[in-house]
Amino acid sequence: MKKFLIIVIMVFLALNLFAQETTSSATPSTVVVAEVNGRQVTQEELDREANLNRLLLQLQSLDERFYQVLTSTPEGLALLQRYKREVLNNLIDQILIVQIGEKMGIVVPKETIEKLVADELNKTLSQYNMTETDLDWYLKSANLGDLETFKNRLRWIFTVQQTLQQIYQKVTESSAISDEEVKRFYEENKEFFTVEESAKLLRIIVETQEQANKVLERIRKGEDFSQIASEVSIDPLTKDKAGELGWVERYSGLLNQEVEEKVFASPVGAIVGPLKTSGGWEIYRVLEKKPKGYQELEEVAGDIRDYLAQSKASELWQKWVQEEFLKFKQSSDIKVYLLSGTETEGGSQQ
């Protein structure tokens, strides 16, 4: 416990160095570190997103020496400050997403957010076999805020997530693909749908040449190939399927090279073998054959439609980001007070 308290105190000392940019009497909930189109970002929000307390505690437990350098040297503190600025940049972008969503008429209902928060909280409690009281105590003990802080962070995460999701759906709603587009892509890219020569096969594998010759003799006498396969085959792929190997494409690698050459040189109905391979002695029956050609449009239409829809949606999204979101960001009034003085971003200059 004493060691834990020392860690917490050291974390506080490190974090307090960042507070020197603000008045000593201010609290994190009132200190403003940025403004985004009039929407204030407080030190409390930034600390919640940066979560430095947790990061520093984890780092201290992993590497004491690096932790000391990071929290007690100018270079280390500058690195932590840079990290906080990057977190702030990301938080500003999140706020802009919510704001542009509102301009597009997208506002996530509070009930939706609370339902998502409750579900995520329950999942966390179940995963760690904790109650809300346990979690609140743990967060406070580890200097990670409290249960309400945890919920507030979830509320913000889900607000941004749901807003972004609805923006994406709205921006890409015109990405539906017509049958004509599918057909045109198929005709213009037929080489993608080439299929090699294939054969539908039955197979029997036995351990010795003597066993293979006996199998061949039974087949020649008119016994059913599938029945024999069910009785004697040791082939792990076909022994429980009455010897049925199914359709095999040439050059697929499923067959031994010598076997493949003989199978595809044989007519439908032929018996091929016995042939010695690393798996044993193999015997095949050629049931059907298909020449080299192309998959039918009906076979691949669904995959083509999905591919084209995803490509179109990606193009629409990238266009929206470049032409709408970045334009909105550049015209926004963004002021950053995290560093000494005032940094102004976006379209408003001071």
Task: Give structural notes.
It contains 13 helices and ten strands. Among the domains are: 1-89, no CATH class; 197-291, Roll (Chitinase A, domain 3), CATH 3.10.50. It has helices spanning 2-18, 43-50, 52-62, 64-72, 74-103, 110-127, 132-141, 147-171, 179-188, 209-220, 225-232, 257-264, 297-331; strands spanning 32-36, 39-42, 194-195, 198-206, 244-249, 271-277, 280-290, 293-294, 333-336, 343-346. Strand 9 and strand 10 (343-346) form a beta hairpin. The protein is elongated and about 95 Å long. With 350 residues, the protein is α+β, with helices and mostly antiparallel strands.
Indicate the structural class. alpha+beta
Low-confidence stretches: 1-25
How far is the first residue's CA from the last residue's CA? 50 Å
Record field, number of beta strands: 10
Rg, Cα atoms, Å: 34 Å
Which fold does the CATH topology of the domain at 197-291 refer to?
Answer: Chitinase A, domain 3
Q: What is the level-2 CATH architecture name of the domain at 197-291?
A: Roll
Q: Sheet with the most strands? A: 4 strands, antiparallel
Number of helix segments? Answer: 13
Quickly name the level 1 CATH class of the domain at 197-291: Alpha Beta
- Portion of residues within helices: 55-70%
Mean pLDDT rating = 86
Gross morphology = elongated
SSE run: HEEHHHHHHHHEEHHEHEEEHEE
